[in-house]
Amino acid sequence: MSAPAAQSVIEGFWLKNFRGIKYIALGSSFLQSIVDIGQDLSPYELTHLTTFIGPSGSGKRSILDAFAFLADIMSTGLDEALSTRGGFSAVYNRGGTDPMSFGIVYRSCAAPVPLTYVVNIGPQRGSATKGEIVSEGLIYRDAAGSSQQMQTVLFFQNGEKFARFVAPWKNAAVADIEELKRTDSKHLGLVKLGTHDDVLDVPQLKRHLTGFRRSCFTPDNAFGLSPVSFKADKHTRLLAAFKQFKEKHNVELGGILEVIAQRMHGVEKILFEQSDTGRHILRFVLSEYPDPFEACQVSEGTLRLFSHMMMVEDPAPSPLLGVEEPAAYMDLAQIKTFCSFVREHAYEMGGTQFFLTTNSMTLVDYMDPTEVWLLTKTDDKMEVIRAYDELNYRGVDLNTIGPCWYTDYIYRGGDETRFK
Prior knowledge:
Helix content: 25-40%
Strand content: 15-25%
Order of helices and strands: EEEHHHEEEEEHHEHHHEEEHEHEHEEHH
Oligomer: single chain
Structural class: alpha+beta
Shape: globular
Strand order of the largest sheet: 2-1-4-5-6-7-8
Distance between the termini: 25 Å
Number of helices: 13
Radius of gyration: 23 Å
């Protein structure tokens, strides 16, 4: 399944020397000649719904960490982004010798061809905790798609900043160039690029990266919405996020809760109320019971599904949303609801791009094989392949695979066990 042409999407990316990832690359095959990452990029563009499955230690969480790291660098600068993660040595791959490398191939609805954004980050001399931006590039390929015909919009090297603007950036504002010259090796030049009529997708790329959100809702946090002091120490992120959501979208909140309740199996109504003492209370009215249940009384799967659906239903949705282990604690009906809900928002509604990480065979079975990427790691070597291609490799007839295609043909099928 492919996204509508009017939506913007990250078509591919590579990561190198970040956390447990020595290198990994998937999606669009463009710009392999620009950065040597040690392996080829699989020549298939990512869709608006991409699911990563693999065993523990295969790099699933690090993929989401990388996009969160880039978002923080763009928002607060490199030093702050590193300090919140324990410093440069905490995020740099222990076996690495080259700089950390992040490459993103992005296609905007405003441009006929994709652009590739590359950032390389190395250690700051004399410091084990600080780093510096070694180089940064923003490159277009020509309309024919040849990697031999490229337009360099932005290029920084080794902290000595310079920008080379070529068509269609020949009319770039002088103020933009001066801003770029004043950018140091702790801040990204991309942030300083303004809006140009000739190239409209740079602001959209910035919004896609800075707007990355990672689902941080956990069942334990939902206990803070109980009217009693049950696990009051967990009164943290979900309550704060819910209050902020209500403040931003108070008018829409009732309708959003109604939509979510209609989609959740066995839930008739969801109530968000305030007690006489000013305490916020979340209640679920279940179809089989006359009295509503507090947040601390419903299943963890119900809370997790509700939390993810709230994040997706935001009237001002994130352009890029990462969800880690969404199927944890969910039953079969809840997993099915989550998958159909996410699919609608990815392809039919707001156009949010989703990166899901999971170990759930059931969740993956609800996905299309073109949307699933299989990860594995042996020693320092990481392997990634699209599930559709793995099925082809195993000689599976894709017209007859059935609804449990992953469970039957990859997890249990054949002698190949590397993606189990």
